[in-house]
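User:
Note these tokens:
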Amino acid sequence: MSIFVTGQQNMDSLWSVWNDIKRPDTSRLKAMLDISQNGFLFSNPDSAYMLAGKMELLANEKKEKSYEAKAVNVKGIACAITGKTKEAVTQWEKSYKISKSIGDKLGMSGSYNNIGNIYADKGDYKSALDYYKKSLQLKREVGDSSLVAASLNNIGIIFKDMNEHQQAIDYYKMALAIDVKNEDKRGIAPTLNNLATLFDEIGQIDTAMKYYQMSFDLYTEINEIEGVARVSNNLASVYLEMKDFEKAKELFLSALSISKKGGFVEHEARALRGLGVVAQNYGDNPMALKYYESSLMVAKGAGVLEEVQKAAELAWLLYKDKGQYKKSLEAFEQFITAKDSIESEQNHKAVIQQEFQYKYEKKAAADSIKAMEEAKVQDALLTAEKAETEKQKIEAKQQEQQKLYLFAGLILALLFGGFIFNRFRVTSKQKIIIEDQKHEVEKQKNTVEVTLKELESTHIKLESTHEQLEESHKEITDSINYAERIQRSFLATKETLDENLKDYFVFFKPKEAVSGDFYWAAQLNNNNFAFTVADSTGHGVPGAIMSLLNITSLEKSIETETEPHKILNKTREIIVNRLSKDGSEHGGKDGMDCNLMVLNQDKSVLTFASANNTIVIIREGEILEYKGDKMPVGKHDKDTESFTLHSVQLQKGDVIYALTDGFPDQFGGPKGKKYMIKNLKNKFLQIANMPMPEQEATLEKEFSTWMEDNEQIDDVCIIGVRV
């Protein structure tokens, strides 16, 4: 039940139209609508509100009622986003009146729908239904069947929330029939998922599975990746209930991969939790705990309380079974905190529902009183004898009430006396208990003195153990430092990069001493220069081992290949062949995501092939983005397909950025969310004209500031090259 907004426009062009008073009024108003609605509404709703206010004033002055209604609608959405729901409703009621004055039924319908959303979120389902049905009627009058289907879906969701399952199913199916007739696959897919979720909830698993599968197939067909992630999780959960753990694992892994790439943190947290349950059912408790902890971290970062509660509960119980009581307590505290927050929100919503119910009943009573007042006009003609009879009845009733009050007073007095007597008995018992506790304290004091002596002996033993641990820690640290030196010897040397790239920087920040991310470079047999930024499977020691395998496979590939896509094809073949001997049933699925870039000898042409990674070029203040193939360099469903060869004619001053996903995936900032690739691209745009060492320093500062007190979740590697 979201409010629809159109795509992003060219802001500079729109601002020039708005500021040009010689332009037609409608052109200026349309530009400001796009600026406020598409440029600021969700990134800065306060600014959107202010700009829509300017648009409203101009539209009112020029008597452009249609644009005036749209401006007020944007103000309403801005208020809703910032939590000012009362003002949002006021703005939409105003927008409705303006639309009504010009006969704009679609505008009227939109206002009603938005108001319905507010009441639905508050739990006032009666009011929400009322507004949704009014919106539905207007859409039917306009004859827009797609919008009619959307309203039917909204009404179905309300009936589901009210546990009116059959009515919810009826409305979902009406919406589905319309979307099928219109061949609207983007409407059909979510409606099928709504139906599946409802049937799943009421225990009709076979029907739910049928609808989930249909929804999944459609989302896949139209490439709606968030929908694919959502339904993959839903399907996996059903397979989990059916004890088909292999199928559940496959779907959870798919949901996890899609969610991580798309930044859908709620689906990511759910998939991680599901994989933990699968691992626990297979008896792999250490892996289950890793998944639960990852789910907790992602859910907490995104503020998804339901997932925090579920993952924390599973981790708490598993830690408890393993006897890890400290970690069990930590997980339990997270579980209780999330549970209390959810229950508080639910209780608040229940209170609001009761309040709305009270208001609803109060209104009904007021309507009844009004009807009675109208009837009194007729009753004024009754005879005096009838009035006297009524008076006598009232007096008799008052006398009866007085008797009741007296009787109630006597009962209260007796109850109070009983309460005083009971308190006396309780106090006497408490005195006896306190005396017993005093004796117990004396006894415990003697026990504590003995325990202190035992603790002194234990302390001496702990000091000896501590010395042993320090020695072991030093040995482990020395080993890791040695491993770090070995790994660094495989990375591209400064001499090689200085000789071939000249103006460049490398921002390399491993999560631990050793890393799964790496950067590598080499001169090819045709004298062109190849360099790579890569993200191996895993991080820490396992990731470092994998990075060495990946680098040696690249070095082997360039003995015979010089084109980027063929180098990656050959590297994949070598990695898959080597890992096929790892002892697993189908051979290892590890490998890497990477960008393999090749510069010709005069640095005028960049050819490259990419596995899941992105390359960004900043050219004259514009962002050029090149996304890689959706497959890794390793075993995969598409490992028989060739990687795609890309070629870019470079211009003097171009700045090339190649990166892994560690920086954009880092949680931090004021809301503990991911940095996101779009923000990193904008940062590249801001720093592109700086000297390259200054760019590296700026990125390092930006990363540290964003991360603040959060844990670094992955290795980070970015290379920037100026042509």
Q: What stands out?
A: The radius of gyration is 34 Å. The longest strand covers residues 591-599. Residues 1-9, 347-384, 405-410 have pLDDT under 50 and may be disordered.
